[in-house]
Amino acid sequence: MAKQLSSIDTRLPVISLRGVEKSFGHVPVLRGVDLDVYKGENVVILGRSGSGKSVLIRIIAGLLKPDRGSVNVLVKDISTLNTRELQVLRARIGFSFQSSALYDGMNVKDNLEFPLVRNNRHLSRQQINEAIAKVLDDVGLTKTLYQMPSELSGGQKKRIGIARTLILRPEIMLYDEPTAGLDPVTSVEINDLINEVQQLYNTSSVIITHDLTCARSTGDRLIMLSEGKFLKQGSFDEVFNTDDARIKGFYNYNFIAGK
């Protein structure tokens, strides 16, 4: 079922890209991308492997610099920020990595506590414990507090990875292939969690994926990326109601009709 679109405040873009280009050596990856993401909106970037999705999301997070173009995040021009200012901005952005990126040598509690204490050194032990308890409750894993990452399922790791970003109460969430490697039932649970995070934390999100079920379930707006350029954007039905062979081929490959 397609996501029921909520009312989005289109007057306030929290992410704004203009003319963004990025190449690696002589290989162009992004070819003049323009993007606005508005407050409270989930935007899904769809595309095949190698289309530039991961590069785009890393540019938004300030992990990569574009060769050309402007990147504004939360009214900050990333190109003008020094190292300290960029660190402060990143604390307002949650990045859910495809691999979950948990520290293998730390249990769940320590994985969650680490970014919280690093960014908020003034917190009391009670405040730290309460923050950990809240995010674990929000992702539905309150009983995993002392488990090690090796003891968690793939879906649980994804949830804990999301919880670790939520503990800083980010204004923006960036999801890198959130359902990759998960079984269909767990994928649905992660999709539901992304929508719950949007509601609970009032986040604005960019979700990159090649999973059309994820896109249909989570996206307020979908954008099709191909060969470094945006082909089409809109609702799920608007994007895929097309004769463009590149978009139709992507749909047919996923084969989600009837789900």
Please count the beta strands (DSSP E, at least 2 residues each).
Answer: 10
Largest sheet: 6 strands, mixed
- Strand ordering within the main sheet: 6-7-8-3-9-10
Total DSSP helices: 9
What's the quaternary structure here? Answer: single chain
Determine the fraction of residues in helical runs and give it as a percent range.
25-40%
Strand content: 25-35%
Tell me the structural class. Answer: alpha/beta
Radius of gyration, rounded? 18 Å
Q: What would you call the shape?
A: globular
What's the mean pLDDT score? Answer: 90
Q: Report low-confidence residues grouped into runs of 5 or more.
A: none
Distance between the termini: 8 Å
Verbal overview:
The structure is a single chain. The protein is an alpha/beta fold and 259 residues long. It has a domain at 100-169. Helix content is 37%, strand content 27%. The chain has nine helices and ten strands. It has helices at residues 53-60, 83-90, 108-119, 125-138, 154-166, 184-201, 212-218, 236-240, 245-254; strands at residues 9-24, 27-39, 42-46, 68-73, 76-77, 93-96, 172-176, 204-209, 221-226, 229-234. The strands form two sheets. It has a six-stranded mixed beta sheet, with helices on both faces. Strands 2-1-4-5 form a four-stranded antiparallel beta sheet, with helices on one face. Strand 4 (68-73) and strand 5 (76-77) form a beta hairpin. It is globular, with a radius of gyration of 18 Å. The termini are close together.
